[in-house]
Amino acid sequence: MQQLDWKNLPFGYIKTDYNVRCTFKDGNWGKLEVSDSEYISVHIAASGLHYGQEAFEGMKAYRGKDNKIRLFRWEENAKRLRHSAEGVLMEPVPTEIFREAILKVVKLNEKFVPPYGTGASLYIRPLLFGSGPEVGVRPAKEYMFVVFASPVGPYFKEGFNPVKIAIIRDSDRAAPLGTGTFKVGGNYAASLRGTIKAHKAGYSSPMYLDTKEKKYIDEIGAANFFGIKNNTYITPKSDSILASITNMSIIQLAEDLGLKVERRAVAVDELESFEEVGACGTAAIISPIGEINDLEMGKTYKFCKDGKPGSVSKKLYDTLVGIQYGEVEDKYGWTTFVD
Ligand code: PLP
Ligand code: COI
User: Fold this and answer.
1) How many C-beta atoms surround the C-beta of residue 182 within 10 A?
2) Is the Cβ atom of 181 under 6 angstroms away from ligand 1?
3) Which has the closest alpha carbon to 319: 337, 334, 336, 304?
4) How far apart are CA 98 and CA 32, in angstroms?
5) Helix residue ranges, H only, 38-184
6) Least distant ligand from the CA of 223
């Protein structure tokens, strides 16, 4: 195994030893197969390739101080993959196959789960796509479910330090009644223009607004948005964003801290009034936001004026990460040991 610099891992692909695959054919899911190849053989007419009949998940395995490996709320990822599958008319993956696949991938690649204290984790990527041949626009009859893993560092190079975000107004990631609530590849392809535009302008990520009126905050690239003011945790309610499992967890933790929680439309103008704002997701964890620039409108919103994350974001981060690494009591039973 190559020597990995655990503390400086990028959020990227690093080859591990094994992945698992399973196919749905003739109305049944087959056996889970383990492979040491990074490649799959795909039919040239697979609906996943032509018509984007595809969905994926993102989750992490964390190595604790006790050296034990924990998964975080994997059942929610299994549930969301089913929701995404139904959204683009794919065969949903049964929870038991999902569970067996992710546990197997982590176990077989145990040596790639980064050591405790490095800030890194093993990213798990389940993916499902139409593998059967179709030329007409219709759902495939065969599906392939693959799970691979890669050790990763922070999604934003800043780690738990304020990031800069750019509001994108000249492209959208998802339509109001489109596929925004599904974790399908097409949304990410659609977000590439905005993402690259933001990066080129020196920002870590784009912020997308509601596509109808461009008045309300939708989400931040591959993470949900939250803002804090007057002892209240506020996060957008929208029909075109992904229901983040991290956000759902932070909402609970915020309530435990005595904060009120509001899930509602959040106007861009309201940014002025927030004491703290941040992005949250499996990859982004909790990333405090230091600046949001509305490029087209020529307006900049600044936060973290002392250059440090706000105190509520810090408390939420410490509790969430503490649970994931086994240092804070897991009173909701969110973690699962891999043994
Ligand atoms: N929003 C989008 C578009 C995402 O891709 C992700 C990542 O999965 C999230 C939000 C955060 O969701 P979660 O916390 O479940 O990872
Ligand atoms: C995640 O947070 O797991 C994601 O899926 C983000 C990813 C698109 C990089």
Assistant:
1) 20
2) no
3) 334
4) 10
5) 47-50, 74-87, 95-108
6) 1
**Catalytic positions, please?**
183
Question: Can 6-152 and 163-324 be said to share one CATH topology?
Answer: no
Domain boundaries, the chain: 6-152, 163-324
Question: From ligand 1's centre to the CA of 224, what distance in Å?
Answer: 7
| pTM for the predicted model, two decimal places | 0.97
> Which protein residue has the closest C-alpha to ligand 1 atom 5?
222
Nearest CA, atom 6, ligand 2: 222
Strand partners, 20: 34, 147
The structural architecture, per CATH, of the domain 6-152 is 2-Layer Sandwich (3.30)
Q: Which ligand is nearest to the CA of 236?
A: 1
How far, in Å, from the CA of 154 to the mean position of ligand 2? 11
The set of residues, in sequence order, having a beta carbon less than 8 Å from that of 188 and lying 6+ positions away, is: 173, 222
Spacing, Cα 55 to ligand 2 middle (Å): 12
Ligand 1 pocket member 279 (CB < 6 A): no
Type of residue found at 320: L
Per-residue pLDDT of the chain in tens (339 residues, 90 and over written 9):
668 999 999 999 999 999 999 999 999 999 999 999 999 999 999 999 999 999 999 999 999 999 999 999 999 999 999 999 999 999 999 999 999 999 999 999 999 999 999 999 999 999 999 999 999 999 999 999 999 999 999 888 878 889 999 999 999 999 999 999 999 999 999 999 999 999 999 999 999 999 999 999 999 999 999 999 999 999 999 999 999 999 999 999 999 999 999 999 999 999 999 999 999 999 999 999 999 999 999 999 999 888 899 999 999 999 999 999 999 999 999 999 998
What span, in angstroms and rounded, lies between the C-alpha atoms of 289 and 283? Answer: 15
- What are the angstrom distances between the C-alpha of 26 and each of 86, 118, 141, 147? 19, 46, 8, 22
Q: Three-state SS for 264?
A: strand
Give the CATH H-level superfamily of domain 163-324.
Answer: D-amino Acid Aminotransferase, subunit A, domain 2 (3.20.10.10)
Token code pair at residue 78: 């299994």
